[in-house]
């Protein structure tokens, strides 16, 4: 099945973009409710999904007559076996038909159907279309980190709904880390009693989430991170430690490098007991054991562990220096044997990759594309997460462009088949259960399209953003809180008074990128409240992005042959936006005075006004056809350099576009 570039020119708001779309001229009016036509022996997940869709589309009514939604499929699909998700969806003026080889294809078709309705002059209809669709990659995941900040079951469930809406099919549930152990263990209860003192999932809650995900065609991949990122394990069972120190659950987000002891048989006895219990609880054939960010310092510092490495030949080429990577490979082999005993396929982060690692282990690359390529060249199945780290607060475009298999890939066809797909990752150092949705959505939908849609259909970044904004509204209607939670934070900060000026500032702020919040004057712990303006600010400012698009469009047209009517409209829109920013600081100052928690953002408000004043002057120059003087350019450079400085771990998102408009 191939992507038809001609069809790409037809405007649509589907995301991910289907493999083939053929648009007709007719329409199916939704004034009359659709009647579901489905075999009574159908997979209960299909019937339930169809009824959920119809309820959202037209209300709870189940009409006896009217246009038909006919669903046909061959057999029940098993996501854990990578069963087909292919489907065809046909809308005509008389009804809707869905055909698929498996029930999984039906679930994906229903997600597409939910995005199809158009509202025009108060009339809602489905456009006539014939869609043939299938995923590019079989593994399309989202990692949710419940270890650093506990995420209650309703948070997990609503994000599963978001995943289903954009055809993601693997929930990577990061359940343990230095800061927490989040699953009830009946075999080793101190793990959740100590490591999950501030929140954990009972086994019944885990089963509830698994059933909820399965009903939406989504697998759940559990991650129990060892041998590092395991301080919460050691706090619960000190005999796991690599030294004689006693640890509490780690209360920092800096990498601890504390690792469990891989040389004691008691370590493997405990792990075997735990993995026996957890592999039975989580039915997915894949099981993630982490393996990342262990620099081996605690192993090297231990005379006993160093002696073990030398005794077993775990030394570097000089024959003297102990090699922690060989010891971790030894550990991985022991863990692999435990998992294989229970029929599981082991997954680990790319640090575990090495020439002696068994080929059946899946490698998840987070440090760079090189690690994915090295993995498949060594015969390992592999996943890409590098480029898809949502917690870094990069733009949707920056997550949209990385490709597990770019067009210029030098991998052989056999090696390419080992690239299973990829996962977006949301690590939760700076996201709790209140704001986590706003850090995942809608940007995760851009990753979902990259992993589902044909490569040729994912080249237009501007069109991606057009559809992303529509998908964001759909996700909000599904119950995701990526729009509502930040607004509620703003209301609380504004004292439930006039929130407009605070919102105007927040809309053009973004959190500082990457992990810079660790290094800007605050020490964060799992107990640090995430209720400041930086937490209400969007990960990517849509207002700033649109401002940048408008600036670039105006500058392009200004350099092209004159188009006065268009230029006037652009100048008017830019001027209105800049006037709002220029006057906003005055309106906001009283709130900053009355609310001490907001005062740290006063400099950003003042700088926003200064930038707006500067750019209003530049618009006047452009309108008059005047070149800026050297003195003006020097002042502009100083103003914009100052505006680029962060405050309160947030930064103004308009500075780059402002520099382009100012010409500096």
TrEMBL record:
Entry's transmembrane regions: none
Domain of life: Bacteria
The Beta-hexosaminidase bacterial type N-terminal domain, residue ranges: 13-134
Any one GO biological process: glycosaminoglycan metabolic process
GO cellular component, one term: lysosome
InterPro entries per the UniProt record, alphabetical: Beta_hexosaminidase_sua/sub, GH, Glyco_hydro_20_cat, Hex-like_dom2, HEX_bac_N
Active-site residue numbers: 293 (proton donor)
Domain Glycoside hydrolase family 20 catalytic: 137-454
Keyword Hydrolase (UniProt): yes
Any one GO molecular-function label of the UniProt entry: beta-N-acetylhexosaminidase activity
SUPFAM superfamilies xref list: (Trans)glycosidases, beta-N-acetylhexosaminidase-like domain
Keywords for the protein's UniProt record, in alphabetical order: Glycosidase, Hydrolase
Signal peptide: none
Homology family: Belongs to the glycosyl hydrolase 20 family.
Name of this chain's protein: Uncharacterized protein
